[in-house]
Amino acid sequence: MEPPEEEETPAGASAGIEGAEPGEELKASDEALTFMSSIEPTELQRCVFLDSLVTVSESGRDLGKFSVTVEFARRVQRPCMLLHAQSQGAIDDSPCGTTVTVYLTSDLEVLEEEYHEYVKLESHSLNKRCHMVQQDGQMVINKVTTVGEEVTKESVCYPMSVLRGLVTEGSSLLLMRLIALRKKVPQHMTFISLDQDLHIIHTTFSELALKQLEVESETVEVFGVERVVQSYKNRPTIWQCYFLDDGHLVNRVVVGSPVTMRLLQLSPQLEKGFDKIPLAWEEDMQMRSKFLDRKEELKADHASYLRQHPEIRALISDFLQFLLLRKPEDVFQFAREYFLPFLSHHPQQARTKDHKL
């Protein structure tokens, strides 16, 4: 999930990108666009499941966890796919993590994506947030990078016509699930993506040879997909992912990195259970959205009820005014005695006891 390293190249430059000329507008290939438009609803239904892997070092040390969930959702009353991916762990004992939440159409067009990456170092911390959303035929992108106390903000807008075939950090995970289920990568699968400086770049997908991997002491045959993310100046970033027949991710690695994400259990992980990840709902776009939606729903329902019963406001107003005039020591007892006459039906025993108080 980690994006390529940041560049210093000015926006619009294209030196270092394979097949690009200065000033040339990068586009997705016809094969890539055809693949996106050919996705069937039944294929998406097969993609709705959880992947949960562990992150390990070359020596086998457990460094953290990686998970991806896909589900059906609605955004602005529009059916869509919701993908949420999260990695948490530590590198050189420094806590780090990445969270991606993306809403996608059935042909993987990005409606909205929230990307968050952090590294907590002893001397300072690094925090990156990037939010993109479709508005009025444009993709509006805002990025905030915090290094220690220094904050850098970037904003850019691209017409959606320029972003045909866009694949982001989030949508690439669902795209590879679909490819794995088809067990075939068409030739010339070149999409466009965005680098760390929000430049448009190329990203390609190709098929890897079938491979035998050992999972839970069992050898399984897996299908491989390679994703190459081009870059200005620097070398491309190459991801290699291997999948089971049912689309579950088995192995994920950046070529040249000593860190590997791998599956430990072949059986359904939801049935066996997995360690809980600390909940940070304020940083989770999906949960925050549900919280705000529910909050507005309750506010509207409460306001409607108050409009239907105006006597409530008068009753509360009278009580508060009487309370402030008397200023009793025991507010609860005062409230009990104040509202007791409003009870239309209460047991005789309680009534007798009340009179003795």
From TrEMBL:
Primary localization: membrane
Subcellular location: Cell membrane; Cytoplasm, Cytoskeleton; Nucleus
Biological processes, Gene Ontology terms: actin filament polymerization; cilium organization
InterPro entries: CATIP_N (IPR048777), DD_CATIP (IPR047501)
Membrane-spanning segments: none
GO cellular component, as recorded: cytoskeleton; nucleus; plasma membrane
Annotated stretches, region: Disordered: 1-24
Keyword entries, A-Z: Cell membrane, Cilium biogenesis/degradation, Cytoplasm, Cytoskeleton, Membrane, Nucleus
UniProt-listed Pfam families: CATIP_N
Ranges where the Ciliogenesis-associated TTC17-interacting protein N-terminal domain occurs: 31-258
UniProt similarity note: Belongs to the CATIP family.
Job of this protein: Plays a role in primary ciliogenesis by modulating actin polymerization.
The protein, known as: Ciliogenesis-associated TTC17-interacting protein
Annotated source species: Anabas testudineus
